[in-house]
Design goal:
about 0% strand; extended; mainly alpha; about 60% helix; about 130 residues
């Protein structure tokens, strides 16, 4: 059985990177390593923060190159994300330098979760009324 790589953000085989390596996954792994530390209520040490920052920046540099992304519109979006990560690295890492900043503070996601929970409560209430 062949192993299928689902990451479309990996470099071509002739680029010198290991097979299956994905720049986007490297960014994700580095961010999650920092999140794991901040979830304990402490900030990462300077060495860990510097190491993870280097991993993120180096992955983003690879992601900016045309060889590391698919062709067409998808590739343009991947390269734009990599450029944004490089340009706004301090924003992406703010949660790792200030415990008051949450890892994920996406207001749209919060609104979606609140609306979903409200919909579930209403639906459960309707089902209870129908069962009575």
């Amino acid at each position: 059985m062949a192993v299928v790589d689902h990451c479309t953000a990996h470099p071509t085989p002739d680029s010198g990177t290991p097979p299956g390596w994905c720049w986007a996954q490297q960014v994700i792994d580095a961010l999650l390593a920092l999140k794991q530390v901040t979830d304990t209520g402490t900030l990462p040490g300077p060495e860990l923060l510097a190491t993870q920052r280097r991993l993120i920046v180096s992955a983003a540099l690879v992601g900016v190159s045309a060889q590391a992304t698919p062709d067409g519109a998808v590739g343009r979006r991947h390269r734009a994300l990599a450029r944004r990560i490089r340009r706004r690295i301090e924003d992406y890492l703010r949660f790792a330098t200030d415990l008051r900043v949450p890892f994920d503070n996406n207001p749209a996601e919060v609104r979606h979760e609140v609306a979903r929970d409200e919909w579930i409560r209403r639906r459960e209430g309707q089902q209870m009324m129908l069962a009575a």
